[in-house]
Structure formats: structure tokens, C-alpha cells
User: What shape does this take?
Amino acid sequence: MEGIGATILFGGGLKNGILLYTTCTKCGKKSLPPRLICDHCGSPEYELKEVQERKGMILASTTIHVPPSHIGTSEPYTIVVFEFPNGLRLMGRLNPWLEENLAGRAAEILIDKEKGEYSFRLL
Amino acid sequence: MNKKVAVVGIGHTKFGRFPDATLRELAAVAGFSALEDAGITSPDIDFLSVGVASGSLSGQLSPAASVADALGITGAPLYRSEAACATGSAAIRSAYTALASGASDIALVVGAELMTRVPSAKATEYLAEMGDYGWEYPHGITFPGYFGLIASAHMKEFGTTEEDLALVAVKNHENAYHNEYAQFRKRITVDDVLKSKMVAYPLKLLDCSPLSDGASALVLTTEEHAKDLSDTPVWIEANALASLNNLAAERKDLATIPSVRLAAKKAYAQSGLGPKDIDFAEVHDCFTIAEIVVYEELGFSGRGKGAELVRSDQTSIGGEIPVNPSGGLKAKGHPLGATGVSMAVEVVKQFRGEVERRRYVGGEVALTQNMGLTGQYSFVTIYRRG
Assistant: This one.
């Protein structure tokens, strides 16, 4: 895997419909997004794994009404921090947007293989 | 760190929207004021520490050279610091370490930002670029958004309400109403906050600090020179910095900002002081929720109990521990590079009794807390009246 960036690795996984994370083979630290160098022990030895679960819980949510110019949308959009049952967490969009405190709500991750993107949906 | 360091000069522009100003002019106004206050001139400076967070916002990259030129400083060492919204505190720390180590004798710290030159959606984008470019920025997260996530987690975990957040804005607007340097000199009510336009749920426009232009400056020196330059030196008793992991999603508990707690712990240890010894504080209320979380992390309240302080007016002027007598980032304004420096200026003015009577709190010991991003850079500084 030498020379492959974590972003490219993760994005490639999404294009195959899977979510990749890394486990440090030295200390066991799990990382999502993947880390090629462990942020706990510094080891460059990692094992690439696939997140199996698709369901989990929203830990925090916000709905943005004033977007930065690179987003170029006039519709509000919701961003959540989502936790998988194994404790890994990921930030992303929740569709459709919903303006309330969604912390504690069950949700699932959806992967769009064609776009190589993911989003969340309430259960 | 061996030598004691004191603030012996202060300067401050008004904060607000100044469409005709340039970064170097704002910096020069604040810088020359601080030199005059200390009774010295540019050739006396042997370290210029400049804090400017963004080159994109002002259009001036590598700003230290331009600021030095505007101040007529040539030959002396110069340095630019950056730590997002804590850039001003980073500039103070650069000077503090240079002085405490003996590398320099008299330092001028100038923090400045020009944020209204570009349209606000563009400014929002430049600020959002400070978030992780690969993993967070593409989702369209903004800084109000990051703090919206923190508010959502805090509300879920501790029952903090939107009214509690509004109380922080009401208090800080009341203080800024009396501050001639503040951007917003307008009293507001809880209802005004709750009815203001939603920016990033649950944060509304009046929960957010504004885009601001402005500059502030300090002259710092060592104990050998402090008494010669000022009858009223203000001593830096502690200057602490801590960091935090960058990705919001990797944090264990979004309702906390652990780097603030860590920096406070270091600062209390350095000074031998604790939260009960602090007479007043200037803290980083970039968004109302931040002030509530910061109360908890500084030990002003127990964990999850931050909102109780503002509900019971304990952080208002006249309360147990007044917080943000200047009006804070929320209402005084938040020109990123100037903010941390402005906090120190407020402390000195309070100690000297040079603030408007209605917002005077005075005292002997004050704390400033300034953070960059969502706590990736956390500064806590403790000052004592000389």
C-alpha cells in the first residue's frame, strides 16, 4: 500500500460500495477515516478492514442555512456526526435535511458507488 | 522560562466594518497606540510579533513584513503567528517565549484581521477552509456548523436549551453596549436571539460572533525593563497552550473541549492559582455555546452545569465571576488575529480602571481563554495586576 494516500484509499472503497478503515497491527487502534500511520503509537503497519455495519446512532447534528460559496446551494442541509456500533465515527450529510436535535436518533449510512460518496438517513 | 514578562503598553482600534481600511493601516493604528502608551518608539522594539489568521481575507499574504513597514520597524526580528481564531494569542505566546527566554527585551505584539473586504459567503468559505480539507470541508461544514454540532451534543447530554444560549448573547451585548470599541453597541433580548435568522441549527444569527475588521496591540517586556516603561505593569503569571485532535467525528465527547481544560490545568499549575482566584475572565464566545462549554472546562462550573452560571447572572458584571466584560467576541467583534490580543488589552484596561464605569469590574487576577478552530489550539493566560 506504500504511496497510496488514505483519502484515495477510502474514496476507492466507496466506489466499490464499501467503507474502509484501518486497524494498527501493533497497538490495535482503529481509525476511520483510515490512517496509514497510527496516531496512537506511530506504527506504519496497518490492516485494512471493511466496516460491516450500516446502522448506528447520530451523536450530534446541525443544519446549515448560510453555506460557504463553494457549496453553492440555497437549500439548507443537515450535517451529522454518526457512530457505528463498533465505536467508529464519521461526519457527513443527512438526507433529507431536518431541523431538529437528532442526537441519539438511529440512522444508517448509504453509499453511492457511482459518485463515490456516502450520506446518512434516519431510521 | 526564566524571566518574568509584563504588559506595559496597549493599543486598540474600534472593531467593526471598515471598507476603506487596509490591514497594515489597522495594524499601525493599534501598534503606534501601544508604543505611545508605553512611552517608546519603533527603534526600541527588538521583536515584532504579528498575528494575522488569513492571507486570503485581507489579500495580504506574509503580513508581518507589511505591518513592520507600516510601523517603521526595520532591522528587528519579526515573526507572524497563525492559530486560526486564536492567532492573537499565538502572537502573544511567540513574544512571551522570546522575552522569557532572554532572546529579546522589548516586544511589540500586533494582532489584526480584515474580514469584510470580501463578500460574506466568500469569507465563510475562507474560514471553512481552516477545517480539515479532506475529511470535513467537502461536506459543507462551516464554523457555525461545528459549534452547532457541539451545541446539539451539549443540549442532548445536559439539557442545555436555546434560551440558555440566548442568555450568553444578551449578557455580552449588554457589556458591549458600554464599550466604545465594540462592533455592536445594541442591547438585545432573549426573544430577539430566538427570533433571529437560523445560521446553523441550533445557532441563530445572534448566537454568532460577526465578521469584523480591527486590530489590537501590546508592548511586552521583561522584569528588568517593566518598571521603567510603566507605573502599572500587568504580569503574565501563566501562559499555557494545548491541542486537540482535528476531526470533530474522532472526538469522544462533542459536548466538551478537552484542550481548554488541559490548558487551564497547566495555567493554574504555573501560577499556583485556581478558578476561585480569578476576578474576571475574557473567554472565547465565538458562538454562545462555546462560552457555556468554556465555563465548564475552566472549572468555573461543574461539568454540564455551565448554563446555570448564566441563568443565575453569576457571569454578568456584578456577579460572582464576570465573564467578557468587554462584550466578548459575540458583541465586541471578532477580527481573528486581533481577538486574543484584544482580550489582554481588556484585562489591562480593567486593572488600570480605564474602562467605562458601567462595565468596570477591576480586580487583581484575570484569565483569558482563546481557542482556534474548535479547540485544536487552546490558549489560557493568567494576568496579575502589578
About this structure: The first strand of chain A starts at residue 20 and ends at 24.
